[in-house]
Design goal:
mainly beta; Jelly Rolls; 5-stranded antiparallel sheet; 4-stranded antiparallel sheet
Length: about 120
């Protein structure tokens, strides 16, 4: 597959562009327990600034490449690679165009795009 199925890309669940890096398109789903699942696709290469969360993050790369920076460690993640980032750990990522990933957050990470 080269993209997430259309039911996963429902505009009602589109993540606010202000909450993601340029060239990234994401969709979010909320769990009853306050957790979230997000699905991201990148149309161009880029990077996120270093940040932390008050909750754990888990993600898996489905396609493309993501370089994860945690402390002084640099990890290259490709198809099928997974990562768990404990809460409070500073991290940032670089990603190549065409990268698709699924993220699970133990809390509220993303807000939806305002409806027009």
């Amino acid at each position: 597959m080269k993209e997430f199925p259309s039911f996963m890309r429902n505009p009602c669940n589109a993540i606010d562009p202000a909450m993601q890096s340029g060239g990234v398109e994401g969709y979010v789903y909320d769990g009853v327990d306050g957790s979230q699942m997000a699905f991201w696709t990148t149309s161009k290469s880029g990077k996120s600034s270093e940040h932390t969360h008050d909750f754990d993050e888990y993600f898996v790369v489905l396609e493309g490449e993501c370089i994860l920076y945690i402390k002084d460690e640099r990890m290259i993640l490709r198809h099928g690679d997974e990562c768990h980032i404990p809460r409070g750990i500073p991290h940032s990522t670089e990603f190549t165009a065409g990268t698709r990933s699924i993220h699970a957050f133990g809390g509220q990470r993303a807000k939806r795009k305002p409806r027009q």
